[in-house]
Structure formats: structure tokens, C-alpha cells
Design goal:
Layout: H1 3-6, E1 14-15, H2 21-31, E2 35-38, E3 48-51, H3 52-60, E4 81-82, H4 89-99, E5 103-108, E6 111-117, H5 118-128
Parallel strand pairs: 1-2, 4-5
Antiparallel strand pairs: 2-3, 5-6
């Protein structure tokens, strides 16, 4: 099974680089997602990502104002990205493990294709029926 087989049709929700944590939380709630992408300020900049967990362990746990705190201050930047849609999903899982993340953004050129999470990989393997996914010859 390849990355192209598991990358969802849903596009990540994106917010402005000058958005607050409260703005990020509203965007998550409105779009029923647990993360948002923070846009680049220019072509030389990197995308960021902020999740519900980042908000809980950051400003909420620290007692900070969500409306006054910039989303970038508790975001992870740069996001972990993959471009090769032909990769076997075991390499996607390996990349997640190496980077210590549970979600990878997938691009085709400069365009977002979607996001892949650890749960997407597990669902694909379970649906495959072999417990290995295509190419899993262990």
C-alpha cells in the first residue's frame, strides 16, 4: 500500500501566520478537526502546525490568554512533509517514528494533497487484511 492510497481527500485547514491561539481553536471547532496548518509568511518561510494537544499543554496548562497568545508561539514549525506519493506506507510510518510525530503533511509540488496520520496508516493496514499492507514482507 502506498502513500497515495491513504492520503485523504480532505485538505488541512489553514490559518494566517498572525492568528492567535483562540483563532486556531475556533478554526478547529468550525472544521471539526484537531489541528490546523499555519501559512507561510513568504516563499522562504515554512508552514507550521498547531494541534489541540499543543494548545492544552501550552497556553491552557500555563494559564495564558488564548486570544492574546500568537498561534505560532506554541506551534511546531516546520511541519513534517512528504512528497513521494509512491512510497510504501511502512516508510511513512518510519518517517513518523523518526520525526516523533503522528501526522505528516503531503505535498505534490507546492500544493497540499492532504494529511496522513498514524490512525490513517493503522486503518489501511487493518483494511488490508494481512496486517502488513502492500509490500510488507516481514
Amino acid at each position: 500500500m502506498e502513500l497515495r492510497d491513504i492520503v485523504g481527500g480532505s485538505r488541512p485547514v489553514r490559518i494566517s501566520p498572525d492568528a492567535s491561539v483562540a483563532d486556531a481553536l475556533v478554526a478547529m471547532a468550525e472544521n471539526k478537526t484537531d489541528f490546523v496548518i499555519i501559512d507561510r509568511t513568504d516563499i522562504g518561510d515554512a508552514y507550521g502546525i498547531i494541534s489541540r494537544w499543543d494548545i492544552v499543554v501550552g497556553p491552557v496548562a500555563e494559564g495564558k490568554s488564548l486570544s492574546e497568545m500568537p498561534a505560532l508561539s506554541c506551534a511546531r514549525k516546520p511541519v513534517v512533509v512528504m512528497h513521494n506519493l509512491d512510497l510504501d506506507i511502512r516508510w511513512v510510518a518510519k518517517k513518523m517514528a523518526n520525526e516523533n510525530v503522528s501526522r505528516i503533511m503531503v505535498f505534490e509540488g507546492e500544493n497540499f494533497v492532504g494529511a496522513v496520520s498514524d490512525m490513517d496508516i493503522l486503518k489501511a493496514i487493518a483494511a488490508d487484511g494481512t496486517g502488513k499492507g502492500k509490500g510488507g514482507d516481514s
